[in-house]
User: Fold this.
Amino acid sequence: MTMILTDAALADAHEIADLFGVSFTETFGHLYAPSDLALFLAGKTAADFAHELADPSFHFQFARDSTGAAVGFVKLGPPDFPIASPPDTIELRQIYVLERTTGQGIGASLMDWATDRARGVGARHLQLSVYIDNHRARRFYEKRGYVRIASYRFMVGNHADEDIIMRVAL
Assistant:
């Protein structure tokens, strides 16, 4: 598949919210009661994404197929985990690709962009969280030098997942 990376703009908030909802549900929806999933997704609206897109401390990038359709995105932002972060740390808040495009290098391209952008804005550390049972993603991050630094309760509605916080020095 031909893929291009494009910057996201404020006008893309609905597209990001839709892509997030589809990709999160494809990847993790089977783990949750419908009410928990609905409650979680209700907190990830176009208005929420628009607020972040307007904030210069957030950075978004789309992956688009040859038709221009969004098939993935990545979002960087200020550290938000309930742990102490080193100075000059940026957080990879979200990286999602549509299930039909998994394994085609889109996640790697988005991750490379995120790492380059983090360095470009002066970050010395990049951190993220990953679901403890998402072994494919954990291997992906570990191959890129990320190490486990803490555990984290990630809430999906009223359901608490155990996530791992990982960090890499840039």
Notes: The chain is about 35% helix and 35% strand.
